[in-house]
Automatic annotation (TrEMBL):
Homodimer. Pathway: Isoprenoid biosynthesis; isopentenyl diphosphate biosynthesis via mevalonate pathway; isopentenyl diphosphate from (R)-mevalonate: step 1/3. It is an enzyme of class 2 (transferase). ATP binds at P111, L112, G113, A114, G115, L116, G117, S118, S119, A120, A121. Gene3D superfamilies: 3.30.230.10, GHMP kinase, C-terminal domain. The active site is at D163 (proton acceptor). Its cofactor is Mg(2+). It catalyses: (R)-mevalonate + ATP = (R)-5-phosphomevalonate + ADP + H(+). It comes from Haloarcula taiwanensis. Residues 239-301 form the GHMP kinase C-terminal domain. GO terms for molecular function: ATP binding; galactokinase activity; magnesium ion binding; mevalonate kinase activity. Residues 83-171 form the GHMP kinase N-terminal domain. This is Mevalonate kinase. Belongs to the GHMP kinase family. Mevalonate kinase subfamily. The gene is mvk.
Length: 327
């Protein structure tokens, strides 16, 4: 039996534009998904107690046609099964053990579908735990690569390497197409996260941006401008100039909003943080609902968000310099 964990992330800059080859800077945060893998004779049995609806938890067999006997949206179940099935397939491939059976248990403290990269953390931790259980130790970069294949597959070809690379490596990273690297010397950033309790449909949101980009040259320019913000931002990152970083985050949020991926609750959390004198604030991840990230080393944005209608949870998220690890 092996347990591995991997962190979620926030985007300092660059989500959505990264899908079109612009750079992005995601940062791992100290919120993790833990996956325990135990080799069994055959098949795949999954325990996912976080996949809850109306008090039901989901347990299912990943093989065959059987679906869990609970009242959960089919799409949720399919996605959940897809991530674990494909992660296990990657582990079997890496260990050259095509028939290995697994019992997999998943638990985490990353809200699902909220822009904090729970799917990437799940896939990265699952590949690490399952390969180790089979006696194979992959380097973090190898896990990142395989985890990307899984997200790409499950999300119908609409995934960048950003979430999976960040979760596998930890820290602040820079991703531009296939070029992925860790940014050295960034140990701390004062992230405050506001969560509206909702979720966005990543596939639909990415498709919406793609359509706008195809329809309007100025939407394509907007995506390219996000790339300019990222290039400016990465130059500022090492200096610790939070004032300028925040200004660039604000600009990035405005452009994401123009691309149609913000929402009323995300906007009101962003404004609550700004009104409380955060250096800057923006949505993180696919958008549509879920989380915003603000930069503030005082408790002011934290307190303001606590009293913001539509904000269900607010917490500080330390930058996690550790990526995937065995527990
Ligand atoms: N702890 C968990 N247990 C079971 N399934 C999980 C868990 N965490 C994530 N998942 C799977 O990942 C899906 C969420 O992935 P999705 O990409 O939609 O959102 P996200 O990764 O949280 O946010 P984003 O990709 O915008 O950063 C869930 O619906 C579920 O299938
Ligand atoms: C919206 C997006 O840029 C980030 C989702 O966390 C999609 C991706 O990069 O795969
Ligand atoms: Mg995801």
């Amino acid at each position: 039996m092996v347990t591995s964990s991997a962190p979620g992330k926030v985007y300092l800059f660059g989500e959505h534009a990264v899908v079109y080859g612009e750079p992005a800077v995601p940062c791992a945060i100290e919120r993790r998904v833990h996956v325990t893998a135990t080799e069994i004779d055959e098949g795949l049995r999954i325990h996912a107690n976080d996949l809850q609806l109306d008090g039901f938890t989901v347990e299912y067999s990943g093989d065959g046609e059987s679906h869990p006997d609970v009242d959960v949206a089919e799409s949720l179940v399919e996605a959940g099964m897809g991530y674990v099935n494909e992660a296990v397939a990657q582990a079997r491939d890496a260990a050259d053990a095509p028939d290995a059976g697994f019992e997999i248990s998943v638990e985490g403290d990353i809200p699902l579908g909220a822009g904090l990269g729970s799917s990437a953390a799940l896939v990265v931790a699952a590949i690490d735990a399952a390969t180790r259980e089979l006696g194979v130790e992959l380097p973090a970069s190898g896990i990142a690569d395989r985890a990307y294949q899984v997200e790409h597959e499950v999300q119908d070809g609409q995934a960048s390497r950003a979430d999976t690379f960040c979760s596998a490596m930890g820290g602040a990273v820079r991703v531009e197409g296939d070029d992925c690297r860790r940014l050295d010397g960034i140990d701390t950033l004062p992230f405050v996260i506001g969560y509206d309790g909702g979720a966005g449909d990543t596939g639909a949101l990415v498709a919406g941006v793609r359509d706008l980009r195809e329809e309007y040259d100025f939407a394509a320019d907007t995506v390219a401008t996000i790339g300019d913000i990222v290039r400016e931002g990465e130059a500022v990152l090492g200096t610790g100039d939070y004032e300028r970083l925040g200004e660039l985050m604000d600009f990035n949020h405005g452009l994401l909003s123009a691309l149609g991926v913000s929402s009323r609750s995300l906007d009101s959390m962003v404004w609550a943080a700004r009104d409380a004198d955060a250096h800057g604030a923006k949505l993180t991840g696919a958008g549509g609902g879920g989380c915003i990230v603000a930069l503030d080393e005082t408790d002011d944005a934290l307190t303001a968000l606590k009293y913001t209608p539509g904000c269900e949870d607010v917490f500080r998220a330390e930058l996690d310099t550790d990526g995937v690890r065995q527990e």
